[in-house]
Amino acid sequence: MKESLMRDNLVELLRGGHAHANIKDAINGLTPKNRNVRPNRELHSVWELLEHIRISQEDILRYTLDRNWKSPKWPEEYWPKDEGNISDEMWHNTINKFDSDLNELINLAKNSEIDITSEIPHGEGRTYLREIMMAANHNSYHTGQIISVRKLLDDWK
Length: 157
Known about the structure:
By secondary structure, the protein is mostly helical.
């Protein structure tokens, strides 16, 4: 596969759509009062899932780019604390941070100065490609969960 085509495919995968819903579609139109409602105690709320996606994506990105990055403690620091009511400010901050990190991942995927199939210098044998695909896969998986939670809350278009 031509390298530029592979990079374009990675960007498409990160953005979502096509066979996978994207995060914007999954959260668009969510009733604010349902942001932190669990359909039952075994399931996460939309807020918990969205914040988990953001935290995990940030960890994958920073791990990939910064040899000094310290990952959160698994699993407790990958999930938000129960915040009760999620304010508009909290909600929008999470979305903005997610978008910013996603754009950095997209720029990494597009950066032809980096051989994305090469090992990350500090990456324990992992490649840039692996990390980009892991972020896309993780985001997609939990985006599907957000849609399922919204359906259970009867808050899906």
